[in-house]
Amino acid sequence: GLKVAAGMGRLGTETAFEVLARAKALEAQGRSIINLGIGQPDFSTPGHIVEAAVKALADGHHGYTPAQGIPELRRAISIDLHRRHGVTVDPVQVLVVPGGKVTMFFAISMFGEPGAEIIYPNPGFPIYESVIRYTGATAVPLPLREATGFALTAEDVLARITPRTRLLILNSPANPTGGVVPRAEIDKLVAGLAHHPHVAVMSDEIYGEMLYDGAEHVSLLTYPELADRLILLDGFSKTYAMTGWRLGYGVWPKALLPLAERLAVNSHSCVNAAAQWAGIAALEGPRAPARQMVDAFAERRGRIVAALNRLPGVSCVTPGGAFYVFPNITGTGMDSRTLQARLLDEAGIATIAGTSFGAEGEGYLRLSYAASLEAIDEAMGRFGEFLARNT
Ligand code: PLP
Q1: From CA 238, how far away is CA 226, in angstroms rounded?
Q2: Check: CATH 3.90.1150.10 for 6-44+288-390?
Q3: Mutate to test the pocket of ligand 1, among 232, 238, 245 (most ligand atoms within 8 A of CB)
Q4: Which family, according to UniProt (predicted)?
Q5: 108, 206, 245: which to mutate for ligand 1, most atoms within 8 A of CB?
Q6: Cα angle, residue 370 at apex, residues 349 and 216 outer, rounded to 5°
Q7: Using a 6 Å cutoff on CB, does residue 250 contact ligand 1?
Q8: Is the ipTM reported for this complex over the cut 0.95?
Q9: Which pLDDT score is estimated for 37?
Q10: Of 132, 195, 355, 382, which has fewest CB within 10 angstroms of its CB?
Q11: Average pLDDT of the chain?
């Protein structure tokens, strides 16, 4: 038979896509399924962004673009980063890519190989661990705990650094927990990293504009002492409800950008031109649609956290960001995978087992509240009835 590369056997996946497929299959059988599984806004992309893409196509933007992205978009990203974080980023450091995930793949493949160690949050976005293992590097989990609101502590991170550590992956606000790392902890971490100049940092800030109750997003970009080793991951998928457009970017240290660009040329060449023009409209156009989305998420967050805390055997901390809740379900007597499977099959609610985000996620479930209030109410009602039948 065919012999594929060994790394293929180490690639993981994102359970969200499997749950989505199973939910769609059940729906095709006529079942009513409420999808709190997949992590995408339930809003359409704002109209002015769509119009910019249509105009770009009509205007003839049909060809390849520079691999780094069109200069107009890289400049708009630089201006947006200044607006949000108060820092000046040279547009030459920006690499536009087809989705935030691509910056992740590039950064991890740039540093990962057998013998190298990469520290990543657990529970965390599952693709971190998957790609680390794919490269043959050792995946070093950074456990995140409910007691600290699922935010890392600097001490925990620094204790895991060895001479073999190449890359540290950070994610705040976080998927799957909604945890937000406080400024004081980031200050401590950055101070500690001064003793480990061999460690690069990839900061995944894709939920950086989804914050509630005055929670503060502290971008790693605001620490000039990290400038020569920080890779910032950001993008348009969440903030502008553009998951299907595949548009994201990385900000790279000047010395690493040519390597990242080479990875781009060797893989996707460039992002489709119309999506890039749409990205400019997103950054330069009215901010109200993005703000209204966050306001809607804030209301839904309150609704779902309150409902979860009324369920027997379930408790849920209030997350500061993103659009996920990560309730503790140990009191139900079921493990994460069992509860995920039974909620889908017996109650018609798609959720994701905490263990899909790493071993440290056992005892938890991830629910996305990027769904209407009616859908959330109905799902919580079904969840309650399911528990009443089964506990
Ligand atoms: N980073 C985190 C933490 C995410 O949750 C996601 C999407 O779910 C991504 C990156 C990838 O975003 P994109 O769809 O832009 O590739």
Answers
A1: 26
A2: yes
A3: 238
A4: Belongs to the class-I pyridoxal-phosphate-dependent aminotransferase family.
A5: 206
A6: 135
A7: no
A8: yes
A9: 92
A10: 195
A11: 97
pLDDT tens-place string over residues 262-312? 999 999 999 999 999 999 999 999 999 999 999 999 999 999 999 999 999
163 burial (CB, 10 Å; 0-12 / 13-18 / 19+) is exposed
294 vs 302: CA distance, rounded Å: 12
Q: What is the pLDDT of residues 352-386, one digit of tens each?
A: 999 999 999 999 999 999 999 999 999 999 999 99
| The residue to which tokens 């099959």 are assigned | 345
What is the distance in A from the centroid of ligand 1 to the CA of 349? 22
Our CA angle for 40, 46, 49, nearest 5°, is: 110
Q: Match 């406080």 to its residue by tokens.
A: 182
Ligand 1 atom, smallest distance to 102 CA: 16
Predicted pLDDT at 17: 83
Query: Domain 63-284 falls in which CATH fold?
Result: Aspartate Aminotransferase; domain 2 (3.40.640)
Cis omega before residue 41 (within 30°)? no
Say how far apart CA 329 and CA 359 lie, in whole Å.
Answer: 15
Q: How far is the CA of 2 from the centre of ligand 1 (A)?
A: 32
Q: Is the predicted pLDDT of residue 164 greater than 90, yes or no?
A: yes
- Could you say which DSSP state residue 367 is in? E
Domain ranges of the chain: 6-44+288-390, 63-284
Contact 141, 360 (CB under 8 A): yes
pLDDT of residue 216: 95
Encode pLDDT of 249-260 as tens digits: 999 999 999 999
Ligand 1 neighbour 208 (Cβ under 6 A): no
In whole angstroms, what is the distance from residue 15 CA to residue 158 CA?
A: 30
Q: How far is the centre of ligand 1, averaged over its atoms, from the C-alpha of 188 (Å)? A: 26
How far apart are alpha carbons 62 and 163 in whole angstroms?
47
**0.90 exceeded by pTM:** yes
The span from the CA of 215 to the CA of 301, in Å, is: 14
Give the mean model confidence (pLDDT) for residues 328-336.
97
3-state secondary structure of 202: strand
CB distance 125 to ligand 1 below 6 Å? yes
